[in-house]
Amino acid sequence: MTRQFKKSVLGWWNRWPRSPFVRRPEPWTLRRALRAAAAGVGLLTLGLLGLGVAGALSTGALGRVWNLRSELLPIEVQDRRGAPLGVIDHCREGNAVNAVPCRESLSVPLTGVSEAFLLAYVAKEDVRFFSHSGVDLGRLPRAVLSGAGGSTITMQLLKNSVLAGHFDYDTDRRGPLLTVTRKATEFVLAPLVTWRYGRREVLAMSVNSLPWIGIGQRKGVYDASRAVFGVEPADLTLAQSAFLVGLLPAPGRYLVQEDTPPETATARFRWMRAQQLVTLNILRSHGLISDGAYAQAAATPVQPRLWRAEYAGSGADLRVVAAARNPEYANEPEPVWAMQELVRRELRRAGVDPKRVGRVVLTIDGQAQAALTQRVQGEGATGPRAAGVAEGAAVVDVRGGGIVALASSTGGSLSSDPGRQWAASALRPVASTVKPLLYSLAFGDGVTQLTAFRDGATSYAGQAIRNNSGEFLNRAVTVREANARSLNTVAVQVGTPREKALRRTLEALGYRADAGNTSSVSLGTYRAAPLDVAAAYASFANGGTRCEPHLLAEVYDRAGRPLSLPRPDCAPLWDEVVAYETFDLLTGAVSSNAGHVKFLRPTTWQRLSGRAMPLGAKSGTTDDVNDTWCAAVTPQYAMAVWIGDPDGRQSVPVNLYRDQAACREVGLLRDLPHDRTSVPVPPGITTVGGVAVPLPGLNPRNPTPPAP
């Protein structure tokens, strides 16, 4: 391009009139800066709203917020006599990705909570709660930047319920984007919650779902006040209320162990004391309590149940000198805690949405449950359990299969997981508890209790069979004696020609084959949970009918209307003559001098008190001694106990199986109240030398086992 051409072009450009849309940058003024800031806030608000709407839609929170009150109300649980057993949360229902563990919570109205607690909670957590619509714009930026707190009571309620497990709360995920997204979602949903329920109802829902996670897996003001101070929420004092509210930022600090160093425990309690005083100061600064009320509360030496604190001084000079765990503290979960997942599962199997349920009546007997829990989760009948040794026990009613008691040794949150509820999930080799089932099968095939077999060298598939004693009697023994002595040789002789039928029967009972065990099925290689074993033994006292074990007796919706449940699933397993003969076989194992469980015979006191009803039992121990069992039956109840390593890696301590620890546990059956003290003798049964056998010429036949 030539110089002359450039000159002409530039001259033409300079003569072109200036466009009103093309201007040079103007200098910043205060007015212009304010307008830009307002525009930026508007864009940020629109972006926050968009992010919040997206978060609400992606988590399904909109629908759950609309039904939040129903979702937070737990299911009230009663035992068969109407006594309360606790409550069941809806924490996982309808939200598969929710990672929040279920916790007990009993809802109480605001009138059931002390005014001191409500004042302390609102003043410290959200002092402007009654003047905003769920979002406090003055606190929101700090909450977003810090990622801490719910900024308002309403937003905290959302964080602890419908949004828990989705973003950065109650998950292993962290990051500023997750925090901002959660806050934005709370920002969108909080006004909706306030409009839907009103502030008073929001406050009630909030105090009933506060996450005191560290305090025995409890939540809500009712459980916290009971667990921490042993009082009703209506009776909380100002000092106690300030202490509880002060725990909310970090409730896990409340927990202390026996081995916590003294200086660490003392420092932790001093922190809780400082938080209590902070809460009291906030109340005083807002004029919600007088100086006199502050001084009295601050001078009160608070003593939580878990702790043993030493104070010095008095009045304003009251200070913590030392603190440690209270050695006498005990706070076991409610009985239903360990069964909540099983109840929910059974509701779904019955076609009932747990969210519709307001109250359930279980087949559980509260007194029996308490007694069994004390045995299983305590020291048991023979002393404390070794590390790695678990125990599961189940008691069922022979008439209908209702579960009377169910307990597992892990307790607490572990046993609320169905995978840790050993009584219902520990699929372990059943060992010699299978023998009465084998003999029942044989009784329907021409064998009786008095049929004799030789106790001598026996083999199965090339494997030499030995007895637990390591010796043979080298003589003929009856089936009755063989069962009492638990002779493996006789069991294999009876079972080998009937192995196919035995497998079919066990599978119908819910037992599972162990493909890795090539020993005889007659020796208990199949696996089952104590609950299934108890249900199988119940058939011997129920005329040969086996009923599926279940927990639900009655179910009511939130309006108190009864919901229909399917009838108990019962099917004939044995001929009634066979069932009675096997029941007599089991009682003979207890009364026989050759048996291993003579300690189960009724004591003089039990005879005098009318508790000497018939009881039959059979013990069992696997070859590797990783499992020891006992199954028992009375005219009204059947019970099975398993003790062992759930992973099958270590042997049961010698004292447990030598002392027949599992069978000592079933002695509980004699302590249960019985309204059925004998099993009806069916037609076709006679006695020979005190032994029940079929009438001569009668050949009872068992029905075909039901399909598994």
TrEMBL record:
Q: Enzyme class, one word?
A: transferase
Looking at the record, the residues that make up the Glycosyl transferase family domain are 103-272
Annotated Gene Ontology MF terms? carboxypeptidase activity; penicillin binding; peptidoglycan glycosyltransferase activity
Q: Which residues form the Penicillin-binding protein transpeptidase domain?
A: 393-651
What's the EC number here? 2.4.99.28
Determine if Iron is one of this entry's keywords.
no
Instruction: Fetch the InterPro entries from UniProt.
Output: Beta-lactam/transpept-like, Glyco_trans_51, Glycosyltr_51/Transpeptidase, Lysozyme-like_dom_sf, PBP_transglycosylase, PCN-bd_Tpept
Q: Where, subcellularly, is it found?
A: Membrane
- Known catalytic reactions: [GlcNAc-(1->4)-Mur2Ac(oyl-L-Ala-gamma-D-Glu-L-Lys-D-Ala-D-Ala)](n)-di-trans,octa-cis-undecaprenyl diphosphate + beta-D-GlcNAc-(1->4)-Mur2Ac(oyl-L-Ala-gamma-D-Glu-L-Lys-D-Ala-D-Ala)-di-trans,octa-cis-undecaprenyl diphosphate = [GlcNAc-(1->4)-Mur2Ac(oyl-L-Ala-gamma-D-Glu-L-Lys-D-Ala-D-Ala)](n+1)-di-trans,octa-cis-undecaprenyl diphosphate + di-trans,octa-cis-undecaprenyl diphosphate + H(+)
Name of protein? peptidoglycan glycosyltransferase
To which species is this protein native?
Answer: Deinococcus soli (ex Cha et al. 2016)
